[in-house]
Design goal:
The complex is a heterodimer of chains A (about 475) and B (about 200). Chain A is mainly β. Chain A has 4 helices and 19 strands. Chain A has one domain: Beta Barrel (Porin). Chain B is mainly beta. Chain B has 2 domains: about 80 residues, Immunoglobulin-like; about 90 residues, Immunoglobulin-like (Sandwich). In chain B, the strands form 5 sheets. In chain B, strands 1, 13, 16 and 17 form a 4-stranded mixed beta sheet that branches. Chain B has a 4-stranded antiparallel beta sheet with strand order 12-2-14-15, with no helix packed on it. Classes of the chains: A mainly beta (about 475), B mainly beta (about 200).
Chain lengths: ~475, ~200
């Protein structure tokens, strides 16, 4: 097998892995609905998109404002009473568990149409010379999820997610313990330990109507064939994070994580990140106070502006290209930020980040990457939300030309029932060049998950080729209970 | 065979009843309903009178441990009263409290009991070291004019002497309602409802 074929296969594997990483499973969790005896719509519009109150609930470590247990309607089993604190260390520290298993299940997948039979998306032309595929139900049920969400006390909560792929794969997506209100006023200092997403934004990772992720990812070392499990900004990492909300209007997070390592040997955990945000107007970031939504008939609506910024340091390890038993690493540094403006039921969410890789290309040279995104949405009814999402990815390897991919996603999100959703979306990609590991153009990858993953693939040998395509029209279906 | 009470003793008992009794004889009942937000905290509620002067003969009460629970969940007693803790479960139980002076009555088996006399006012959390989920409360008031609410939030304080008193509500450290001044007239019932909040 030629080295070029090996590289192509590695890139293909990397894009599949990156695609899986980008396919952030929905995190609506009916276990909370059962716990509080409340509808999904208390926290969501078209799930997993959160309302301002739902965002506050998430930021608070999956707790209601005020005293969380006041709102709990589900029976709990005390593992130790509050009064035990007075007897500590002669008595166990108090805790409680839900009276019934705090889990929820859900399924999701998508049906795809490929109106342009000449489009380069791999599924339409799976075999060279094969008949173009016009539509596919292969992914209609792609994933099953088992979610866990519970409180062990008024300040300690836990969150977890197991995802079962239709292909039989099983993935532990999240497993976190959240120690809230450690010192100072409520919500000021919290500690999150376990496996999960880093906090890089003021909003939840699924804060999008059109796609499944607010912040799109760009698997640079995967695009250049260095790693089969490339580093991306938002993924499930093992680590610890300190976060909090100060004065109801400022939020911060700082964390460390294990990062990515496809070499198979352990290295120091050297990934760290910082983020901060502020909100003007609307509900407080922690939901405290008795102001409630500005419009009781439209609890999702408010007049507010939220800005946030972050920095991220990563040290990723992978097998040295062409080497035997040796590892190479790519240190990258990312800075980015975003803003969300809400005017009644209209919302504009924008963001950007720039990434500097020390050894991100196939030649282990420097690469600069840039990602920008924006999504405009309007909640017409609580069950109908049209949106337009745009993402732009760019790469500039040292000594090479800058290439980019522009992804347009017009979409309409429907809530068929409070726990059943359908998103119709179109995927248009405009590539101005392609990543070119080894000098040969390769497909773009990454994006914002599920229907929002990048798919455009070069059709010729020119790495600078321009290509405009309607890749697909998708119907994303999800339900949970 | 029932012992025959000497006449002198009967006189002393009668005198004692009279000493504590004039008020009781003319006593009134304060009753009402307690609402709570959230309602789930309502069972942990005692309505009581503060600072009622006079002697209050000590009484003996019972709290059972049955079905791995303290029954009743909340008991209102007066300073100097004794509570006898029973165990009708087939498993051994313990009773201890970290509150006030603190006490530990050790462990006792089915049909055994242990007693404790409460000499100080306050609320004593009842815990079982063998079963950390068990919880009960003994509310020790300065006087016997106190009542825990029933399942629907109703309470009734009987034999309240005439006078002007402070009526208060205890709900642990969860919910509160302001004290209120009530005037009790001899032989007349009084209704006082409360709404508890954070």
């Amino acid at each position: 097998m030629s080295s070029r074929k090996s590289l192509a296969r590695l890139i293909e594997a990397a894009l599949i892995v990156a695609g899986l990483a980008a396919a952030f499973p929905a995190s609506a969790i009916p276990a909370f609905a059962r716990k509080y005896g409340t509808s999904c719509l208390t926290c969501h519009t078209v799930y997993p998109k959160l309302t301002p109150f739902g965002e506050a609930f998430r930021r608070n470590g999956y707790r209601f404002p005020g005293v969380d247990s006041d709102q709990v309607k589900q029976e709990t089993v005390a593992l130790g009473q509050e009064a035990n604190k007075k007897s500590f260390p002669d008595a166990v520290w108090p805790a409680a568990i839900p009276g019934s298993l705090p889990v929820a299940i859900g399924f999701n997948g998508l049906a795809s149409l490929y109106p342009d039979k000449t489009a380069s998306i791999p599924r339409t032309n799976a075999a060279a010379g094969g008949a173009a595929v016009r539509g596919s139900l292969d992914d209609l049920v792609a994933e099953g999820h088992l979610w866990l969400g519970a409180a062990l006390s008024d300040t300690v909560t836990t969150w977890g997610e197991l995802t079962l792929g239709d292909d039989g794969s099983l993935s532990l997506e999240h497993a976190q313990l959240l120690f809230n209100d450690l010192v100072g006023p409520p919500h000021a200092v919290n500690l999150v330990v376990g496996k999960g997403f880093p906090t890089l934004s003021s909003f939840g990772p699924h804060s999008s109507y059109a796609a499944d992720a607010q912040i799109p990812v760009l698997p640079v070392t995967g695009l250049y064939g260095l790693s089969a499990d490339p580093f991306v900004l938002v993924d499930n990492y093992k680590g610890a994070e300190v976060n909090g909300v100060l004065g109801g209007r400022f939020q911060y997070a700082a964390g460390i994580s294990n990062g990515k390592n496809s070499f198979g040997q352990r290295f120091n955990a050297e990934n760290w990140y910082l983020s901060a945000g502020a909100k003007l107007g609307g509900m407080r970031l922690d939901g405290e106070g008795d102001a409630g939504p500005q419009d009781a008939m439209r609890p999702w609506a408010e007049e507010s502006l939220t800005v946030h910024a972050f920095a991220y340091h990563s040290n990723e390890w992978f097998p040295t290209p062409g080497g035997v038993g040796t590892a190479s690493n790519d240190v990258s540094f990312t800075v980015g930020g975003g803003a969300r403006a809400m005017v009644g039921s209209a919302e504009l969410d924008v963001g950007w980040y720039g990434q500097s890789h020390g050894h991100g290309s196939d030649a282990l040279d420097k690469v600069r990457a840039g990602v920008a995104y924006g999504e405009l949405s309007y909640v017409v009814y609580p069950w109908l939300v049209p949106a337009l999402r745009v993402e732009r990815m760019s790469l500039k390897p040292a000594g090479g030309s800058s290439v980019s991919d522009l992804h347009w996603m017009p979409a309409v999100a429907f809530l068929i029932r409070p726990n059943v959703k359908l998103v119709l979306a179109g995927n248009v990609e405009q590539a101005s060049g392609f990543p070119s590991p080894g000098g040969a153009p390769a497909a773009w990858g990454g994006g914002s998950g599920d229907a929002g993953a990048l798919a455009i693939t070069p059709t010729g040998a020119d790495p600078a080729a321009k290509l405009n395509e309607l890749e697909s029209i998708t119907a994303f279906l999800a339900w949970a209970l | 065979m029932q012992a025959r009470r000497p006449p002198i003793a009967a006189l002393l008992v009668a005198a004692g009843l009279l000493a504590a009794g004039p008020a009781r004889a003319a006593g009134s009942t304060i009753s009402g309903k307690v609402e709570a937000t959230p309602a789930k905290y309502r069972p942990d509620t005692v309505v009581y009178l503060k600072n009622v002067p006079g002697a209050h003969p000590p009484r003996t009460h019972e709290i059972d441990q049955r079905g791995m629970q303290f029954v009743p969940h909340v008991l209102a007693v007066a300073q100097g009263d004794t509570v006898k803790f029973l165990n009708h479960d087939k498993v051994a139980h313990n009773v201890y409290s970290p509150d006030g002076e603190g006490y530990n009555l050790g462990s006792f088996k089915q049909d055994q009991s242990a007693s404790y006399t409460f000499k100080k006012t306050g609320t004593y959390t009842q815990l079982c070291s063998i079963h950390p989920e068990m919880l009960g409360y003994v509310f020790v008031g300065q006087n016997p004019y106190a009542a825990a609410v029933d399942a629907k939030g109703h309470y009734a304080i009987h034999d309240v002497p005439p006078g002007t008193w402070q009526l208060a509500v205890w709900n642990g450290d969860k919910l509160k309602a302001p004290d209120r001044t009530v005037t009790v007239a001899a032989g007349k019932a009084l209704t006082e409802n409360f709404s508890l909040k954070r």
